Amino acid sequence: MTAEEIAKIIEEKTQIIAQLSVERQYALQPEIWERYGEKGRELSIRDIAQHLVYLTQAIRAGDSAIFVNYALWLKELFAGLGFPDSVLPVMLECMQEILKETLPEEISAAANEYIQAASDKLNLTSAKEESFIPDNAPHSELARNYLKLLLQSNRNDAAKLIIDAVEKGASIQDIYMNVFQASQYEIGRLWHTKQVSVAQEHFCSAATERIMSQLYGRIFTTKRIKQTYVGACVGGELHQIGARMVADFFEMEGYDTYYMGANTPAQSISDAIAEHNADILGISCTMSFHRGALEDLIKSVRASADTPPNLKIVVGGYSFIKKPDLWKEVGADGMAKNAQEAIALANRLVSLRRE
């Protein structure tokens, strides 16, 4: 049986597997779960269904790291929620048991290898996550003050702080890397550990995008180098601020840029590549369960008769930070962890193409 067939069968049984897993866990840990009532049970079923999404994507890709990294993320999340350390291991055990009881042995055994890999890793990993704005980081004081103002919903003073720093000599590239990017990572960490709300996280991201736009008068003045960059987020991907930062770096480098935003349909990306005769395509993929869509997009772009023959594809996002060699598996020409690396890689790829 193929990995695709195994994943599809699990997907067909997702709801019953989730329901039975929750029932099993509630029976094993009533002292933890009874207080949440029927609403808590419904949310738990929804959560298990989401766990199974990552599991089936890992199976499809033949890559246990997809589910392992997701489990490590859950460990941080559960710690922030104040759950006992036993909750996640028991949850995974219940999923393994229900998979074994409800599916043929070939399918459950294949799936449970991935869950066991996650369980083994959890036993070796601490749930503590360090700040993304350490004291020794460039512009750390500026980044902390900026984030503090945003968390106070003081967007105007946060914008003034950034404009003042630029006028005093800070480069826009430094502001992007050491203030905007660092503060975005930090707000994500604070949300993950339940120190800030979803509303605060969304406000901070929206405010940062607005403040970035206030710098555009300084960005769109660079001499052009007659190269074109198309940037987009893979279909279904809603995390766009990192991709936008990368596009702005290409603009500052002198590229003509065409940034398409979040959740971009594959056909729209192909059309933009052809219309603008793109030299570089940048694709952002934050959530690992979008890997299949990313692979399909790259294959589609490569196969299109309208794609410029020398197009180079650069990928990035959290999925690639957690697994640096993933770019090879999805068919890209390279991976960048941040905007600076994306520029260096693109320039290298364009230079090699000319030789």
What would your notes on this structure say?
With 355 residues, this protein is an alpha/beta fold. The protein has three domains: 3-122, Phycocyanins (Globin-like); 140-217, Methionine synthase domain (Methyltransferase, Methionine Synthase (B12-binding Domains), Chain A, domain 1), CATH 1.10.1240.10; 223-354, Rossmann fold (3-Layer(aba) Sandwich), CATH 3.40.50.280. It is built from 18 helices and five strands. Strands 2-1-3-4-5 form a five-stranded parallel sheet, with helices on both faces. Strand 1, helix 13 (241-253) and strand 2 (256-259) form a beta-alpha-beta unit. Helix 2 packs across helix 4 (37-61) and helix 6 (87-102) packs antiparallel against helix 7. The mean pLDDT is 93.
